[in-house]
Specification:
The complex is a heterodimer.
Chain A: H1 9-14, H2 20-42, H3 45-61, H4 72-91, H5 98-116, H6 122-131, H7 135-146, H8 151-158, H9 162-186
Helix pairs in contact in A: 2-3, 2-4, 2-5, 3-4, 6-9, 7-8, 7-9, 8-9
Chain B: H1 14-26, H2 33-42, H3 50-53, H4 57-85, E1 99-107, H5 111-116, E2 151-159, E3 170-179, E4 182-186, E5 189-199, E6 203-213, E7 227-236, E8 241-251, E9 256-267, E10 270-272, E11 280-283, E12 288-291, H6 295-299
Antiparallel strand pairs in B: 1-2, 2-3, 3-5, 4-5, 5-6, 6-7, 7-8, 8-9, 9-10, 9-11, 11-12
The chains are: A mainly alpha, B alpha+beta.
Chain lengths: ~190, ~325
């Protein structure tokens, strides 16, 4: 049972981050999408949470500069991206090419706009797509993501080689992406 | 490009990989309530912001009232969602049918009447620090710069007769004073946020947000916490201990504070900082225990240097 309701696009667009009440609602509505985005960039749970927190604090401080006619999700992605670049400068981790960054950005943007249109939220769609994975891929995804095992542990549990785990995860991610893309293509779009 | 391990996704798979991680961490529709509470505390609930400082005192009061009502819906929904979606504290056993709980919130003025009630069963000597707390004791041990608390949480545990040591029905009361910048209620769920300060006879809990569920008797088991606080600093007065943690629940059955997401434990012997996400600290007035995660969780982190030096041929 879930108590979270997805607001319609029109209602979401009325929220003004310069108003404290609306800002709190925007934090609640957008933090998960931004966590996914930040995690895709940094690949680390704690860092992605720090980046999203810093991004919302920066957004609050700069709320006066926000153009209410613009899309809040897009604005926040830009701030998260800037925070990620700051983090990169301090931490000399792997970087992404412009194309790779644009690809991640596009994935999150599509997802956010679908959710804003009142269509199936991404985690719901992902749940459906997961249930359609072949059994061996599902077992591997479960062991690696949902049981928190590393590659070697997942391999030991499944009785296969670590290289096979890597291939299965890769295959599962590709199938899930294709499934999600199909779902988004078929989703009914609102009139907004 | 320099990816950390062979299991990491390619950039094209990063989005799905991140979504799977978040799905596994928070569930399909769960919110990251700790993060939301931390963001709100650093933004709209931050009293030190220039805008708030510039307001007159009456405007500040109005603003607080306004913020309280404004944030209430978001906070309540988020925290209730957490209660439904996250794993609650489990004591490891089924609810004890020999134990019943009564949980209620009391205005400060009712405390005297509570202390004078005399038709209750005898107080059990289950925990020497868990007896009825005199009202004047609640906040005497810690200097407080907040307004006096106007709410008290009373949790009463009724013990059925059992074994030779407790042949009669007995009762134990725990009393907490609660002060915060804002609060809201929905049914039996009460949410406090912004500089939350919860005082107990032996403990002080400072938190970003807290939730109280007032249920009576057997309708709520210890699997569903009566008192939860987020982003917590818990201080024990005697012996002196302090724990910083992401989440704290109170288990009235054992009169224990259960802390998860522990960041630091400080005692008279020093500080401990290396905790795993799933480690738990269980603190009572008379005991401290640390429950570690299964060993496999550590295997990801602990790396040992090869003790044998390699000699080039």
């Amino acid at each position: 049972m879930h108590l979270i309701t997805i607001r319609e696009n029109a209602e979401m667009s009325r929220l003004d981050p310069r108003e404290d009440e609306d800002f709190a609602e925007l934090v609640r509505l957008h933090h998960r999408d931004l966590l996914v985005y930040a995690r895709a960039l940094v690949r680390d749970d704690a860092t992605s949470r720090d980046i999203v927190q810093d991004a919302f604090v920066a957004a609050y401080e700069k709320a006066g500069t926000f153009n209410i006619t613009r899309d809040f999700a897009t604005w926040m992605r830009g701030i998260v991206r800037n925070k990620w670049r700051e983090w990169l400068r301090k931490n000399r981790r792997y970087d992404l090419t412009d194309n790779e960054l644009a690809s991640i950005d596009a994935d999150v943007a599509v997802w956010q706009s679908e959710r804003a249109s009142g269509n199936s939220p991404v985690f719901e769609a992902l749940e459906t797509c997961l249930s359609r994975l072949p059994g061996n891929l599902m077992d591997t995804v479960k062991a690696y993501y949902f049981e928190g095992r590393n590659g070697d542990e997942a391999a030991e549990r499944l009785g296969i080689a670590p290289a096979a785990v890597r291939k299965r995860l890769q295959r599962a991610r590709i199938l899930l992406k294709q499934c999600l893309d199909r779902k988004l293509d078929n989703a009914p779009h609102s009139e907004n | 490009m320099n990816f950390a391990t062979a299991m990491d996704p390619t950039p094209e798979e990063s989005f799905i990989d991140a979504a799977l991680h978040e799905q596994a961490r928070l569930g399909q529709a769960g919110n990251d309530d700790e993060l939301v509470a931390a963001i709100l505390t650093k933004t709209i609930l931050d009293d030190t912001s220039d805008e708030t400082m510039a307001l007159s005192s009456s405007t500040v009061a109005d603003r607080r009232l306004w913020i309280a009502s404004a944030v209430a819906a978001a906070a309540v929904i988020a925290l209730v969602a957490l209660g439904l979606s996250s794993l609650p504290y489990r004591s490891g056993s089924a609810p004890d049918p020999g134990m019943q709980f009564s949980v209620r919130l009391l205005p400060a003025e009712e405390l005297v009447e509570i202390a004078e009630e005399s038709d209750e069963p005898p107080i059990a000597a289950v925990n020497p620090h868990g007896n009825l707390i005199a009202p004047n004791r609640v906040s005497s041990s810690v200097a407080s710069d907040l307004d006096p608390p106007d709410t008290y949480l009373e949790i009463t545990t009724f013990f059925a007769p059992s074994f030779a040591s407790f042949p009669e029905r007995s009762v134990r009361r725990e009393l907490f004073s609660i002060a915060s910048i804002g609060e809201s209620s929905e049914g039996r769920e009460h949410t406090y946020y912004g500089n939350v300060r919860i005082e107990h006879q032996d403990f002080l809990i400072e938190a970003n947000a807290a939730k109280v569920s007032t249920q009576s008797s057997q309708t709520l088991s210890s699997e569903e916490p009566y008192l939860v606080a987020y982003d917590v600093i818990l201080t024990q007065f005697q012996p002196a201990r302090q724990v910083r943690a992401g989440k704290m629940t109170f288990d009235p059955g054992d009169s224990a504070f259960v802390l998860t997401g522990v960041r630091q434990l400080s005692t008279s012997e020093g500080d401990l900082r290396r905790f795993h996400d799933n480690d738990r600290i269980i603190l009572t007035s008379t005991s401290l225990s640390i429950e570690n995660s299964p060993l496999r969780d550590y295997q990801k982190e602990v790396k040992y240097a090869n003790p044998l030096s390699e000699i080039p041929k």
